[in-house]
């Protein structure tokens, strides 16, 4: 009996050790995706020169002034692409080394086991990164109707929000709910039309649905070049430049800037000029 008891105790220890090893392996895999500067900002490489020389500069990197901090939320109907958009932001800002995928269950903000199994966001998650001198606290919120209160809880602390729309669906049921919540708290918003390369995507339909269903007056900052299978880039309305993506680029970082010329794109130039004039008129 004594030997059996010892075996039982050792077996429990081994099982516990096995579970801990699995957890540690997953934790190590997640940490490998993060870059060192995520803890101290994008100026991490300059720290050795600052230490002992300029304590104030060091402090501004680790803890920037409040005027340089922005709390931004991501909100949308479920499956519009909030978490995927968040992953792209984190990757392009240098927060992560590789792109996570909802289907693979390795995104930064969906870290709960239930979220990774189901491929949906259940609770809000915040991540911090630096961009062009600003510290951004990005909050990925749930899009499912059952977790509406999670969105409400986050809106109270936001400086602004990005409303993500499926370009093939436009405004959906939960979009209306979260938009009204943002209206209630007077949160400034940017509308991001996602999935422009999806079959059935329509820029004009999505924009019109925002006007009609949300009673909003969207100002266009970018216009698409093509839709669905022909989608290949966007036009910057302010600078009147074309941003054309390299189709062979794996992560979407590689793109080319070209001036928008009347001789090559007369229709697109006209639409861009009209959108730019409308934008300037509202800014005045």
Describe this structure in words.
By secondary structure, this protein is an alpha/beta fold. It has two domains: 66-199, 3-Layer(aba) Sandwich (Rossmann fold), CATH 3.40.50; 219-283, no CATH class. It contains nine helices and nine strands. The protein has a five-stranded mixed β-sheet with strand order 2-3-1-4-5, sandwiched between helices. The longest helix has 31 residues, at 2-32. The model is unreliable at 2-19 and 36-53 (pLDDT under 50).
Q: Tell me the radius of gyration.
A: 23 Å
Proportion of residues in extended strands: 15-25%
User: What is the CATH topology of the largest domain?
Assistant: Rossmann fold
Number of strands: 9
Helix content: 25-40%
Attribute tags:
single chain; 284 residues; alpha/beta; Rossmann fold; 2 domains; five-stranded mixed β-sheet; four-stranded antiparallel β-sheet; 9 helices; disordered N terminus
Task: Provide a concise account of the structure shown.
The chain is an alpha/beta fold and 284 residues long. The protein has helices at 2-32, 47-50, 55-62, 82-92, 113-118, 148-155, 173-184, 203-214, 266-283, and strands spanning 69-76, 125-131, 134-140, 160-166, 189-194, 222-225, 233-236, 241-245, 255-259.
């Amino acid at each position: 009996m004594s030997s059996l008891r010892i075996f039982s105790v050792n077996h429990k220890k081994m099982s516990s050790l096995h579970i801990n090893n699995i957890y540690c392996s997953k934790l190590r895999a997640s940490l490998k995706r993060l870059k060192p500067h995520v803890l101290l900002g994008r100026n991490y490489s300059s720290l050795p020169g600052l230490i002992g020389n300029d304590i104030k500069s060091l402090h501004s990197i680790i803890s920037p002034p409040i005027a340089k901090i922005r709390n931004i939320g991501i909100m949308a109907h479920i499956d519009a692409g909030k978490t995927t958009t968040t992953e792209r932001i984190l990757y392009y800002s240098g927060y992560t080394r590789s792109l996570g995928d909802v289907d693979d269950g390795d995104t930064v903000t969906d870290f709960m086991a239930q979220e990774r199994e189901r491929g949906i966001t259940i609770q809000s998650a915040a991540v911090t990164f630096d961009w062009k001198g600003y510290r951004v606290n990005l909050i990925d919120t749930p899009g499912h109707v059952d977790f509406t209160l999670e969105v409400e809880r986050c809106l109270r602390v936001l400086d602004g929000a990005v409303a993500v729309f499926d370009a093939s669906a436009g405004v959906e049921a939960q979009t209306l709910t979260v938009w009204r919540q943002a209206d209630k708290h007077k949160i400034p918003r940017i509308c991001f039309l996602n999935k422009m390369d999806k079959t059935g995507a329509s820029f004009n339909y999505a924009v019109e649905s925002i006007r009609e269903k949300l009673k909003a007056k969207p100002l266009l900052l970018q216009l698409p070049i093509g839709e669905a299978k022909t989608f290949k880039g966007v036009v910057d309305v302010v600078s009147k430049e074309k941003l054309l993506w390299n189709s062979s680029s794996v992560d979407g970082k590689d793109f080319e800037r070209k001036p928008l010329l009347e001789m090559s794109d007369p229709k697109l130039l006209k639409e861009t000029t009209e959108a730019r004039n409308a934008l300037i008129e509202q800014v005045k």
